Amino acid sequence: MSTVYIHYGSDHYDPEKFMPIKNNPLFVKPEGGMWGSPENAPYGWKEWCKDQDFHTEKLEKHFRFAFAPHANILQINCRGDLAQLPTVEPPMVNGVAFPTSIMSWVLLDFEKLLGEGVDAIQVNMSSDTAINFDDRLYQALYGWDCDSVLVMNKDVIICE
Q1: Per-residue pLDDT of the chain (160 residues; tens, 9 = 90+)
Q2: Where along the chain do its domains lie?
Q3: Which residue, 152, 150, 160, is CA-closest to 38?
Q4: E strands along 9-97, which residues?
């Protein structure tokens, strides 16, 4: 196996539970897919949960996985990496544009990325070296929180 990833909350991979990717027009994360972190990530899901005291009891159950050699994994290391990716327009809420307080969010078009052959998106928050807080990847993808991978195509998952 090449890079090994870890998914928390279950002790085995069940492809029947894998839900299709669907854009969420009100958030930077889509619905569906499967989340994980690189096992050797500087700041992965396990570390974030411990720091935030968030569902640490669920860290006991986990499984490891990798990607098939042909998998297309999009790597995002800084806000600039988002510039050429397809996005969706923020929705109107009661005839008013989406709140400006979150307009720094980048709403990726996950469905289009999947249709273009992207199997997974790996966001490496710990690689971001922007000094200005507003330029940080964390602000653009608020809610990703840690080094993580979003698997959008279940056919590229290889379990140990």
Answers
A1: 489 999 999 999 999 999 999 998 778 999 999 999 999 999 999 999 999 988 888 889 999 999 999 999 999 999 999 999 999 887 777 776 665 455 678 889 999 999 999 999 999 999 988 888 778 898 899 889 999 999 999 999 999 7
A2: 5-159
A3: 150
A4: 19-22, 31-38, 62-67, 73-76, 92-93, 96-97
